[in-house]
Amino acid sequence: MELWRQISDFGQWLAEVGAALSPRRAPPHALGLSDGAPVLLKRDGNGYEVERPAQRGDKAPLFLNQDNVLLATLEIKGEAMLLGRGPARIEAAKRCPFPLDQARWTLSRVPVAWTDAAPWQFAAAPLSRIAGIEAALTAAGAKPLGAFAISGGTVLMLDGARSPRLAIASAGLAVVAAMVAAISLSADSAALTDAAEARLAAARADLTAAEEEAARAATVRETAAGPIRAAQAADTLLTAAPPVAAALAAVTKAMPDTAHARRLSIRPGQLEAEILAPDAAALARTIAADGSFSAARLKTAARVEAQTGLQRATLEILVPDLAEDPQ
């Protein structure tokens, strides 16, 4: 077992030395999107600039800029490096806000000396986002060949695309492994198999837990983004429909500081507001007494929220200014 581990470490070292001595160069041309339009890009230093719109017959790798890919540097403790890529993948799953099985991603060792911890470069993009970009390019007649990102001048090919030097190192390692397997047939193979399966099961359990944690983090982010999206939608509505904007302003002005609306629904001639207030019925009377509205009444019975102690209900508010407005 110790001999096999030494050979495995040697193979990993050989691959990383090859990557350090001959780093992958960014392709001279790439495909991508600029302001939502499919374009052909040309290399400019460590980045890319638009050369022209993409057209039929264009074939190049898909370049994912920082708006479309997650880039991170992971620090893996030195003792964990003896376990290969497993600890780095677990840490990547923890840092990624979306599940790795729903993404294209890659891990690459940073070719620098390390003692207590070793840096890894991690890049990932959701499959849905890549599919959307590829669909736009395909519609223009272009053909994206794989996907890559650039971090600190280093090219990171997503989904583990390997350079020839890494393929040679892997092939050499496979030959050595076959020789060792032939020599080791007389060893206690049952014990080695049990130990390997135990390590694999433990690694899978850690990875599953990390991916579940990443999924929970993504859910929290999505929930937190809800109020922002609602505010953006309200801003768009106010800009596009001045009569509606005036009605919303009137509702806001008529509502006391002790109450607030959680959701507004606008129809011709009326507003529906989901509100929180100390007294929902009193709030309906207050709004009805405002000269900006024809009437206001409770559409649903009020109920008290345990968390806030406030009454929650839906108000129906009739607005004369909206009666003639199609929005």
**Low-pLDDT stretches:** 160-171, 323-327
Helix content: 40-55%
Rg from Cα: 30 Å
Mean pLDDT: 80
Q: Which structural class do the helices and strands define?
A: alpha+beta
Q: What spatial form do the alpha-carbon principal axes imply? A: flat
Largest sheet: number of strands, sense, barrel closure: 5 strands, antiparallel
- Measured between the Cα atoms of the first and last residue, the distance is 74 Å
Total strands: 14
Q: What is the H/E order? A: HEEEEEHEEHEEHHHEEHEEE
**What amount of the residues lies in strands?**
25-35%
Contiguous helical run count? 7
Set down the secondary structure blueprint:
Layout: H1 2-21, E1 29-34, E2 37-44, E3 47-53, E4 59-63, E5 70-77, H2 86-95, E6 103-109, E7 117-126, H3 127-139, E8 143-151, E9 154-157, H4 164-183, H5 189-240, H6 242-254, E10 260-267, E11 270-277, H7 280-289, E12 295-298, E13 303-304, E14 311-318
Parallel strand pairs: 4-8
Antiparallel strand pairs: 1-2, 2-3, 5-7, 6-7, 8-9, 10-11, 11-14, 12-14, 13-14
Descriptive notes:
The chain is α+β, with helices and mostly antiparallel strands and 327 residues long. Helix content is 42%, strand content 29%. It has 7 helices and 14 strands. It has helices at residues 2-21, 86-95, 127-139, 164-183, 189-240, 242-254, 280-289; strands spanning 29-34, 37-44, 47-53, 59-63, 70-77, 103-109, 117-126, 143-151, 154-157, 260-267, 270-277, 295-298, 303-304, 311-318. The strands form 4 sheets. Strands 10, 11, 12, 13 and 14 form a 5-stranded antiparallel beta sheet that branches. Strands 1-2-3 form a 3-stranded antiparallel beta sheet. A hairpin with a 2-residue loop joins strand 2 and strand 3. Helix 1 (2-21) runs antiparallel to helix 4. The longest helix has 52 residues, at 189-240. The N and C termini lie far apart (74 Å). Residues 160-171 and 323-327 have low confidence and may be disordered.
